[in-house]
Sequence to fold (134 residues):
Amino acid sequence: MKTKLIEKIRSACIKANKEIVELKFGCEVVVSTKKMGAQKTVIKGFLSGGGFMTSFGETPEESIIKIIGRPIHLADVLLAMSKTADTTVEFYANDGITSINCRYNDTPYSIDWNLKETLENQELPTLQFIADLL
Fold:
């Protein structure tokens, strides 16, 4: 269930901000390797002759099977929410900006977003609430 919620939120975030899946530093990709087949890795740099530096060393661009993109943070989620029609959400931050009180259709909600973590590491109730809004 958590995976489906994350994919729904991630898809809405990418729709709102295509930069998430641009091939640049920090972008997660799946590459085809001769020794281990398809493997996830992160772009760590660019080569002057084309291609990328990853945890597998020099990686040609044509070996990329899938672009996953960079990690999703709260700013991406807020941008996606702002693009959702007929949704008004007010955020009030407290306690070090980790607890967020939301008002949606005059009903108060309280969710926790750990600012030190990406979308994938948020709690299930937070993911469910955000997915329902999107």
